[in-house]
């Protein structure tokens, strides 16, 4: 059984400053001066070859201006979040942290939500973190000994669904679907869903650092042995239960999907710069 808590102890702090961005000479446009004695001609504007830009921002990573829309990629943001969560774990449980990941959770109504995941020797923690105010909003605590199945595969939807997604994901089960109430199944805000579904964060290719913490395969490779060890050391009713790791399609049972259609296309589940409002 998972536990969800809201925390007021995390206080907002400011981002670490690494200096204002200064455009390089290769980013500036050059104009040719007009000869005052000749007829006016249209100014010619030239850019440096694209090869120069690819040297500054090599593939496969995105350019910095795209990634800066996401507050998680701004200087000091993810480091502050990790330090906050490390301090909270040390004060509350004292468990050994095995890793941090930045992934996208897909709820049972197909809504995307930016999440930080922690794997300790006993627990899986799913954190809703506000990267704008730099504070933990919600923390879901799942004992690893209660996780009995993991599914990896492509997302599938009912045939009549109007809002479908491509790609692959990971689903973690810690409760029985048969015991899930009809209300929680069809309630988009329910916190009683006995599983969680994840896919890779859209900023995975921002940098080498984010490539490491946003990879679903890296998260899975740490999670599976941690669960197996927790089962071996379990003294409760789930002792001796074997973990099943399956490769099969992941069903997201939505039909109309109007709420997820609007939310996902506007990235409402992410700490994102929405642009300036004013004149």
Automatic annotation (TrEMBL):
One of its GO terms (cellular component) is cytoplasm. Residues 72-244 form the HSac2 domain. InterPro entries: hSac2, Inositol_phosphatase, TPRG1-like. Residues 45-57 have a biased composition (Polar residues). It holds the Pfam family hSac2. Residues 1-60 are annotated as: Disordered. Belongs to the TPRG1 family. This is Tumor protein p63-regulated gene 1 protein.
